Amino acid sequence: MDEADVVVVGAGAAGLSLTERLAAPGFAAGAPSVVLLDAPPGPLRPPRRTWCFWESGAGRYDAAVTATWRSLRVHAQDGRSTRQDIAPLRYKMIRSDTFQTLVEERLAAAPHITRRQATVQRITPAGRGSHIHLRDAEGRATVLHARYVFDSRPPRVLPPARTCLLQHFRGWFVRTRRPVFDRGAADLMDFRTPQPRDGLAFFYVLPTSATTALVEYTQFSAAVLPGDAYDRMLRGYLTDVLGAAGHDVTDTETGVIPMTDGRFARRSAPGVFPIGVAGGAVRPSTGYAFSAIQRQVTAVSTALRAGRDPLPPAPHSRRSRAMDAVLLRGLASGRVDGAAFFEQLFSHVPMERLLHFLDGRTTPLQDVAIGLRTPILPMVRSALAAATCPRRPVAPPARPS
User: Fold this and answer.
1) CA torsion angle for 195, 197, 200, 205 (degrees, to 10)?
2) How many angstroms separate the CA atoms of 10 and 16, rounded?
3) Helices (runs of H) and strands (runs of E) counted in the chain
4) In this structure, how many other beta carbons lie within 10 angstroms of the beta carbon of residue 319?
5) How many Cβ atoms are within 10 Å of 227's Cβ, its own excluded?
6) What is the dihedral angle through the alpha carbons of 10, 11, 14, 17, rounded to the nearest 10 degrees?
7) Which residues have CB under 8 Å from 42's CB, separation 6+?
8) Contact assessment for residue 124 and residue 130, using Cβ atoms and an 8 Å cutoff
9) β-bridge pairing 81-85 and 2-9
10) pTM above 0.90?
11) Is residue 297 scored above 70 in pLDDT?
């Protein structure tokens, strides 16, 4: 039986980020042996993704950043737009392939880290640690023992919740035949599209030149859309709103992100810790996760270096989760007009402050000031409903076809 001090399951954003942190020197009792388990090529391997986040100054992963923007813009349903400079912050975009390449380069210089391809069948307690039961690409079964296991696989079952919406999306990387994009600003939300009855829909545009961009159609709603509905919406937006009937699609991405007020476990068994999406890193009101993942894995690696229990911290504060639960309830019940809610928020609150709010870095007084820019009566009713509604089991989300 093989042994390791630490096993990281899954090579998505959370798994790669934690392993990269553990590759760096600075352990009080010597570097632990680390095994990164990546699923063999197939449906269990994380799909290619684009991750976005904001930070000021130089960042740890700038070498993998595809593009940055200092201005963000929101388009209202009536065509009015709000554009704001977010300095000293920068909005950054990383593609998962580039991120993986950068991390692999850093892991190559760390002899205490091993990477293996195998499917995790189950994890069982075993003395001071766990047995990870594996099956490799050829079907051979093996067992790996570890003191600590950090599991970044998407959860098979979501925790019981009062409210659970899905953020489901499809993005096209497009090249247009004439200039239609403003390279100087990223369109965070463009509401010039029909809205669902309960939830909201918008387009998200990240331009990398005047003729190239990631254009994404996103819905927050209870269920994914059927068939080619996403592609129809994307074609209509490019043609009717942007005037880019002549375009080529060079790549695509599709996903579903649960937006839930369920309480994710920080420890699933002795020495076994969910991280990333499985550890509650997704911000329930927006679907952003990359920055929360970095906070989570930084705390874990710091604890391991100091020889402490590496229990991951809650990615978001109780106050943030409570506010998100109210918004989710308002959107799911139809009490809150999602498009009008965000239009009003972005037009009356400095965007830099909103980004700090989404990172949980605002004070209670600043939160109150932001709350006063929302529809107060519907939000109060949603708060009462969120407080009294029982938590119920949540069905696993379907994926767009």
Assistant:
1) -20
2) 8
3) 9, 19
4) 12
5) 9
6) 140
7) none
8) yes
9) unpaired
10) yes
11) yes
